[in-house]
Write a structure and sequence with these properties.
The complex is a heterodimer of chains A (474) and B (282). With 474 residues, chain A is of the alpha/beta class. Helix content of chain A is 32%, strand content 16%. In chain A, helix 4 crosses helix 7 and helix 8 runs parallel beside helix 17. The longest helix of chain A is centred in the C-terminal third of the chain and has 20 residues. The N terminus of chain A is likely disordered. By secondary structure, chain B is α/β, with parallel strands linked by helices. Chain B folds into two domains: 89 residues, Elongation Factor Tu (Ef-tu), domain 3; 118 residues, Rossmann fold, CATH 3.40.50.80. Chain B has a seven-stranded antiparallel sheet with strand order 6-1-2-5-4-3-7. Chain B has a seven-stranded mixed sheet with strand order 11-10-9-8-12-13-16, with helices on both faces. In chain B, helix 2 runs parallel beside helix 9. Chain B starts with a strand and ends with a helix. The chains are: A alpha/beta (474), B alpha/beta (282). At the A-B interface, strand 5 and helix 12 of A face helix 1, strand 7, strand 14, helix 8 and helix 9 of B. Bound molecules: flavin-adenine dinucleotide (FAD) (2 copies), iron/sulfur cluster (2 copies) and FE2/S2 (inorganic) cluster. The site of one flavin-adenine dinucleotide has 26 residues of chain B, from strand 4, strand 5, helix 2, helix 3 and helix 9. One iron/sulfur cluster binds next to helix 5 and helix 7 of chain A.
Chain lengths: 474, 282
Amino acid sequence: MNAKDPGPGKQKKERLPRQPMPEQPPRERIKNFREVPLGYTVEQAMAEASRCLRCKKPGCVPGCPVEVDIPGFISLICEGKFFEAAAKIRETNSLPAVCGRVCPQEDQCEKGCVLGKKWEPVAIGRLERFVADYDRTYGRFEMPAMDPPTGKRVAVVGSGPAGLTLAGDLIKKGHEVTIFEALHEPGGVLIYGIPEFRLPKEIVNAEVNYLKRLGVRIETDVVVGKTVTVDELLEEEGYHAVFLGVGAGLPVFMNIPGENLCGIYSANEYLTRSNLMKAYLFPEYDTPIAVGKNVVVLGAGNVAMDAARTALRLGAETVRIVYRRSRQEMPARAEEIHHAEEEGIIFELLTNPVRFIGDERGWVKAMECVRMELGEPDSSGRRRPIPIPGSEFILETDMAIVAIGTMANPLIPSTTPGLETNRWGYIVTDETGRTSKEGVWAGGDIVTGAATVILAMGAGRKAAKAIHEYLMSK
Amino acid sequence: MFEIVEKKQLAQGTICMFKVMAPRIARKTKPGQFVILRANEKGERIPLTVAEAHPTEGWIRIYFQVVGKTTAMLSLMEPGDAIKDVIGPLGLPTHVEKWGTVLCVGGGLGVAVLYPVARAFFEAGNYVIAIIGARTKDLLILEDEMRAVCNELYVTTDDGSYGHHGFVTDVARKILQERKDVKMVMGIGPVPMMRFLCKTTEPFGVKTMVSLNPIMVDGTGMCGACRVRVGGETKFCCVHGPDFDGHQVDFDELTKRLAMYVPQERMAYDKFKAEVGAGGGR
Ligand SMILES: Cc1cc2nc3c(=O)[nH]c(=O)nc-3n(C[C@H](O)[C@H](O)[C@H](O)COP(=O)(O)OP(=O)(O)OC[C@H]3O[C@@H](n4cnc5c(N)ncnc54)[C@H](O)[C@@H]3O)c2cc1C
Ligand SMILES: Cc1cc2nc3c(=O)[nH]c(=O)nc-3n(C[C@H](O)[C@H](O)[C@H](O)COP(=O)(O)OP(=O)(O)OC[C@H]3O[C@@H](n4cnc5c(N)ncnc54)[C@H](O)[C@@H]3O)c2cc1C
Ligand code: SF4
Ligand code: SF4
Ligand code: FES
């Protein structure tokens, strides 16, 4: 926001460049599923931290959806107090090891950093990741302050970042918390969607175990709406409040001819097979996944990048991102696009699929595309892509992954009378997450549509506060 | 963990029955619904129909045919062992009402899937005619159980070793020719059987429902692995089905999609057989 306040005597430090992140080299990493960035060493972290001007009116903090005390934790790093730095972040962000890795920092905290005006912004995400990893590796588990039991019971549906954050907040307030998760493992998209090479599952498991040690109960294999309904939780199982953090789980397809051919996946299926079911370790794990030679991925968000890079690691020879707009409009994080390019993913921009062509066994063998050009801006402010007549061409492919977005899963709304949804099926709430149904809150992707980890966590936090007030006033 | 409390081998060991403790699921299951289970930590998620559910005792009954690695592995489990994950009940229950006369047709393992449905039709006051078939006498399952929930039962074997010599569809055609009051046909079995049954009933204009079995992963509408084409539209079998109007189903596409992982499945099964053979255990 402002460069007014660099603090006396700190200007010289601006000259230190932003510390690069050590990474697995592209040629090596496309052959394994290990994490790509390797993390800062203590020296690198301290050097990077020393770049921060510790602004009195920091531009970075307002950019963070949960307002992490960024200059505060960075000061602690400078003093070598890494555990204290981690505790500082945890005051507002319960998943720092995750956020340090997956937040779109360039659009959030780092965007507002004053150093970014003239130089490069402080690598806030990398520092956050550093202290969280340090704390997880060397720290001793200390029970946080816990309020005395209130006798109130809260059911949390879904164990993604929204549900996990809310569960952590409410258990500390003395409430009894049970998370119900439809899949066999907790973590939501952090487990089934984001690949190991970007977010090691060990980190998510550590966070889940932390919650368990605080006393949160987790019942996996429970599909709310099927195994038990929201009303049954409230009326028969004695929960005083329910939080719905069920994500935006329904895959969207293109609705073009040939889309059900073998070898065509939704990104959800492809990533679930690979991440949750560990198909990349087949046959050690039982779930199979098709290995494409010439793979196309439709879409250009984070999900598309993850699918493309997974396909490469599973053994594809070429992987193409096919996107109907231009590079500027690609919704993925800059770092993901950069990593994908380094790994050799090809970008077919301003290109739209028209139909899939199959062979006699029902497998996809080609995709017909049309080239696009950008016209007038549409309602989202992005220039609308329009097909160029006569520019159709055939792209040979034996696997396609559709990553053009998700929709709300109707399972819970359709089995919960009195729960209001909007015309896209997302649950309607006020700013605290309160729904139209007494005792029921919601937050995360099921309210906003597909968004980010940190926004889902923020929603969980707000709802936790509101639920706490509701329970204590009853 | 979901404990197996009873096990039975049928059809010369090719089909296995488990009674599994799953109280939440047992309370909610209706005829036609299924569960997804995962045998162990490294296991695949596979769908199996609930053939019976006991809401107060908290168990469900499943039947499965040994066709690949997961079902082979399951068949080696014993009472007292536990299945890692059981999720359900999934899918829409079979639509049950009093139509009058209904024809229930089941082939092979499909008879186990048909059983709860036939029973529901019967209990709803329908006149239930059932035709069940198998390749040969020793592979026929649940004859007595089926007999108890229908008004007329016909049995067929492909080799003529028991009952009518031929296919279930032969008998179905005959019945449809002889009596004009059949309001609904429900067919469950291998895909070729269901496809042929739909061809058989089409000229009679009788509504024919089939229970489809595409490959699934989550079973909650999240992945789209289970998409099937019905009446020219893509449906997710796990949430819109598994029952569909058979005259609208694109069986060709279903058959091809079911074969998507055949090489991997064969490899996994062979590897498993080699391991079990060599190690002599699980
Ligand atoms: C591949 C991929 C990559 C992404 N990359 C990034 C990134 O780099 N940075 C970023 O900030 N964001 C990223 N996102 C988005 C981010 O992951 C989501 O916005 C966030 O996870 C939403 O959190 P949530 O808690 O709302 O729901 P989710 O994480 O979706 O979790 C919902 C959970 O609820 C469970 N559930 C659903 N229905 C039921 C039910 N009926 N009963 C019980 N449980 C149920 C689901 O199984 C799931 O576990 C990515 C998303 C994907 C798919
Ligand atoms: C709704 C539904 C209900 C079913 N009910 C029953 C039942 O009650 N009893 C029974 O024996 N079988 C049932 N099936 C089929 C059963 O799921 C498969 O036989 C089983 O998955 C085979 O697993 P496998 O590892 O032993 O064999 P594999 O070697 O993996 O597969 C053998 C064949 O089974 C099919 N198959 C494989 N994986 C899956 C999967 N994840 N989901 C669905 N099909 C798959 C494929 O066509 C494959 O070629 C049902 C399927 C569906 C969709
Ligand atoms: S939580 Fe995300 S946005 Fe906030 S400071 Fe950390 S990395 Fe930046
Ligand atoms: S990170 Fe940037 S904006 Fe924030 S306190 Fe440091 S120098 Fe200032
Ligand atoms: S099995 Fe995933 S959507 Fe049906």
